[in-house]
Each structure stands twice: as C-alpha cells, then as structure tokens.
Design a protein that fits this description.
The chain is of the alpha/beta class. Helices cover 43% and strands 15% of the residues. The protein is built from 14 helices and 14 strands. The strands form six sheets. It has a four-stranded parallel beta sheet, with helices on both faces. Helix 1 links the parallel strand 1 and strand 2. Helix 4 runs parallel beside helix 8. The termini are far apart. The relative contact order is 0.14.
Length: 334
C-alpha cells in the first residue's frame, strides 16, 4: 500500500508513441527514467531510492536474441550484473525479483515423455489423443535445458542472482513466467513471440494464422494481469525469500487451440502450417504447487476470457496494429 513505482527503461523496443499512446508511459514523468540498465551510474541512482526491485529488463524476444546474440549478452547478462552489483551494495533494498522464463526448461527431461507426472497418469490416453504426446509438467527442480540464446541468458541470470545476492544476504526471488499474453501487448516485426497478440492482430486484418510446426507445441498461457499480481506477491511474501517459483496456470494448451480461440472472435480466419523456428521448444505447463503454497495465490483469468478481452481491446485500439503489418495485408489483397 502506498508504493511509488519507478520505471527504468530505454524505451527503444517500440516507437516512442507506442509507449505513450498504448502503454501509458510518459517519458517526461519524473518516475520514468529513460536509461540503460548497462549504465552503472543510472542504475545505482535508481536502486539507491528503491525498497524493492523487479528486474524485468531484457532483450526479451527469442528471435531477436537468436539473430543478435551479442546484443542479448549486453542487455541480459551485462545489464543484469550491473543491476545485481548495485543491489548488493545498497542496504536499502529489501528484495529483488528476477524475472526469468519457462524457456529455461526447454523440452524438459527426456524421461518426462515416457513417465509423465502423476497428475497426468489417469488421463494419459486423453492427453495423447488431444496433444499427440503427454505434455510434461515443469517443476522448479526440473533440470534446466535452455534451447535458445534468450533462454540461456535467463538461466545464467537465475544462477548469478543467487550467487551475487546470496553472498551479501540480500533477499531475492526468481519468478519463471510461462507464456504471457494480454492487452496491451503489441507484436514486433520478425518475431514469433506472443502468440495471442500475433494471432489476433493477423486475424483482425484478415491474414491467415501461421501454425509453426503445425501448432502442436504446448504452452501454459498466463494473462498479464495475473503475471503482475503474482510478481507483486513475490516481492512481499515472506515465504518467497530466496525461492524460485513458476508463474503459470498448470494447464497445457496447444498453439492450434489458441488459434481456434482467436478464430472464434474473427470468423472465417484461415490457418497455414509453417516451419518450426529455431529455439522454439515443444513446451509443457507449470507445476503450480510451489506458487500456490508460497504466494497463497492462483491465476484468475481463463484463456478463453483473456483471448476475448484481447480481441475486444484490439478492435477498440486499431492503432495497436503496426503499419508494417497493415502494409502486408494490403499487399495480400491487392
């Protein structure tokens, strides 16, 4: 209660008007620091005035990290170390939450495919019929097997957070977000992240939905409002001290199913099967036992509701559709 959030961001991932008009971020606001997490002076000043820190700064696009691994290292590794050093040197900070990703699990343990977790054993035949395989459920103790540059930087960040802050006794929590979606998420060119936003935006323009690998990958989709609620709880929950916590729903959903939910909002939407991009895991869903026990909380927004909300927001916010995709749509119908 009474918290005053301060944002440190380069504001370079999107055109500046996107931050102002869609995200509600005013660069002239005194609580918005336009700066780079790799700048020690900027970071130290921001940390010195903070009681809690949420570290979500990253080159967070899997495809962009694959294309530009050095840029990913600069932001996701060097930037993380700059921030950790500042937090470790500041007695004021009560806890840092490091935002990680379910991508650190990759495809999970090979044995997970042969011996699914006990929650699935009673419905194995149904799951195999629906998904073509039994999706693994990722537990926080599952060994990490990152399959992309992005995932690898997140796995490094988890370990380095524990090493740096553990050495000085500063409390930290690692949260592994599963697939985040919801308004006002906006797609990026040459990216395959953020499937709900991609599908809804293409469907709104009458473009076909690309099902990479046939859309058989599995994701655990979590609405951004639930992500925000869980992250704030991770900052303050006493039991979250030095814990690693999955933030997910525990429900596996095929990408094809997401496309079908989007198509319900945009009748006549077509599907096209496309090749699987590099570094794209088959996926699974979160084990939520630790999340529920440590945070005393569960997500509240269903995927069907969340997809409908995003489509409604997009229809009311046509400026969220980028010009480059509108041009593709116009060229396709010319």
């Amino acid at each position: 209660m009474g918290a005053r959030p301060v944002l440190l961001c380069t504001l370079e991932a999107y055109p500046r008007h996107t931050y102002r008009d869609l995200f509600g971020i005013d660069p002239t606001d005194p609580d918005v620091i336009v700066g780079n997490i790799q700048d020690p002076d900027v970071v130290r000043k921001a940390v010195a005035e903070s009681d809690y820190v949420i570290h979500a700064a990253a080159l967070a696009d899997v495809a962009a990290c694959t294309r530009k691994p050095t840029a990913a290292i600069h932001t996701n590794i060097t930037g993380t170390q700059v921030l950790l050093d500042a937090v470790a040197a500041c007695d004021r900070v009560r806890r840092l939450v490091f935002v990680s990703s379910a991508s650190v699990y990759g495809n999970g343990n090979p044995e997970d495919w042969a011996r699914p977790c006990k929650e699935y054993r009673t419905v194995r035949k149904l799951l195999e019929a629906v998904y073509g395989r039994v999706p693994p459920q990722f537990h926080e103790h599952t060994p990490l097997r990152p399959m992309s540059v992005y995932a690898n930087t997140k796995a490094w960040g988890e370990t380095q957070t524990a090493l740096t802050l553990g050495a000085v006794g500063t409390s930290y929590t690692v949260v592994r977000y599963f697939s985040v979606y919801g308004e006002p998420q906006v797609i990026k060119e040459n990216s395959h992240s953020w499937v709900v936003a991609w599908f809804a935006t293409r469907a709104a323009l009458g473009l076909p939905l690309h099902l990479n690998g046939g859309g058989h990958q599995v994701r655990d989709l979590v609405h951004v409002e639930d992500i925000a609620a869980a992250t704030v709880r991770a900052l303050a929950a006493p039991r979250a001290h030095n814990e690693t916590i999955n933030i997910g729903t525990g429900t596996p959903t095929r990408i094809r199913t997401v496309a079908e939910l989007v198509a319900e909002q945009y009748p006549g939407t077509r599907f096209v099967e496309t090749p699987m991009p590099p570094g794209d895991p088959l996926g699974g869903c979160a084990s939520t036992h630790r999340m529920e026990a440590v945070l005393g909380w569960r997500p509240t927004i269903t995927l069907k509701e969340g997809v409908a909300r995003y489509a409604d927001w997009l229809d009311k916010t046509p400026e969220a559709i980028p010009a480059w995709l509108r041009a593709e749509s116009e060229a396709a119908t010319a």
